[in-house]
Amino acid sequence: MYLDSELILEKLAITPTSVRLLVLRLFLDYNSAFSLSRVEEHLFYADKSTIFRTLQLFESKGLLHSIVTSNGVRNYALCTDECLDDNHAHFHGHLKCDHCNQLFCVPIISLPLFKETDGFKIGSFQIIANGVCKECNQFA
Fold first, then answer.
1. Torsion angle defined by CA atoms of residues 58, 61, 64 and 70, in that order, rounded to the nearest 10 degrees
2. DSSP-derived secondary structure letter, 72
3. What is the CA radius of gyration of the chain?
4. Distance between CA 82 and CA 75 in Å, rounded?
5. Number of Cβ atoms within 10 Å of the Cβ of 92
6. CB 92 within 8 A of CB 107
7. Stated pTM of the model
8. Contact present, 103 and 70 (Cβ < 8 Å)
9. CA distance 61 to 9
10. How many CB atoms lie within 10 A of CB 77?
11. How many other CB atoms sit within 10 Å of the CB of residue 86?
12. How far apart are CA 70 and CA 120, in angstroms?
């Protein structure tokens, strides 16, 4: 898996530095979105500004997408294969756990969500459903 991390970065013309590899591995190892502060918690030995620049770079290259939750915190999650290159589309929703604050990407069952848009081309949208995740439900 770690060799795959280097190949992923190289495919996107991103130099595989140690921090970039660690950030990517974090996203690959967990099926969840991360805020900057959560990434910092996991990579406490790395510089905050380096982590932030890495997240921005990954987003600009189509490796990550971001969503801002109702509390104003930006979260990042891995993009799917269809988001790579010039097609950086995010037609999916998000589930946010009210207990552990984890954010999960979930597919949308049917599109379009709107009856008509009168010629308005939708590039992206945000749907966030709040509740309690599977792990937190076990302790509720």
1. 90
2. S
3. 16
4. 20
5. 17
6. yes
7. 0.74
8. no
9. 10
10. 21
11. 6
12. 25
